[in-house]
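Much of what follows relies on a compact textual record of a protein's fold. With that in mind, consider the following protein and its fold in token form.
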Amino acid sequence: MTAIRGAALATCLALAGCAAQPTMLESALPEGAQRSIELADTPFFAQKKMQCGPAALAEVLSASGVAVTPDALAPFVFVPKRGGSLQVEMEAAPRGHSRLSYRLAPALTAILAELGAHRPVLVLHNYSLPLLPRWHYAVVIGYDATTEKLVLRSGTTRRQTMSARQFVRFWDRAGRWAIVTLRPGELPATADRARYLESAAAFERVARPEDAARAFDAAVNRWPDEPLAWVGRGTARYAQRDLQGAARDYFEALRLDGSESGARNNLAMTLLELGCPHAARAQVETIAKDALADPLRAAVEDTRSQIAAHMTASISDDPESCRAVGR
């Protein structure tokens, strides 16, 4: 019996040693994700010489509903002297088409999660050695965990398949840069608070106020305890001339973090425009301007001057407007 048990144990150990290990794609699959996805409807634009950047960007923007061509994007992202496109231009260009650029975390899981949300991913590869780089933008449109392959729109190839290991090797050499483009109000599948707010703030600088408000609406709904989300939406509402809505958002930001001097200065200016100079002065007087750096320090000083001018003119608070803001 001892010999039989020993043989059985040896057999079990041998079988355990041969158990299949998860592949790279299987290990990266988000929980509950499909084993294979292909966003076959993703548009394809065959690149012109050295213009993979405009072509790839046109593909992801078109997939998000923007009617645009590589030729229309080339003046904004293609740098002739460099013979290619830089990441900073690639991230900036979508904002001019009412889309946010969101940089993904440098993990294969993030790419697969966005594909699972039916969103193609723009990536940068480096096909050569570190000392002799050959950069290339492509768009990931699918994967198959069974065959361990990713599917791309790449260069002049509409449907390129690449092993996961090869894909990650080229992606590693390019610093694992990847972005998705978002409609205002959309959140990425792998939304990171700081990363998204940074994207929304950059978008707000060039976006229509209503689009900026949608972008920050999404942040407020996902992270209601984040003061910067409320500040961003307040600023967008201010630009829309929804002064009472802006004031309420600034009040909420300060309730969450009373040290937000930018939010307090914005609230003071909003109260002043609402006809509440005394309430505005009460807010701005709590800001320790000497501890601030420019340009915020200069903005606070300007707010103080404008409030003082109203006080000198003996302008009283408008009771109805001020009560409405305080509710």
Summary: DSSP finds 15 helices and nine strands in the chain.
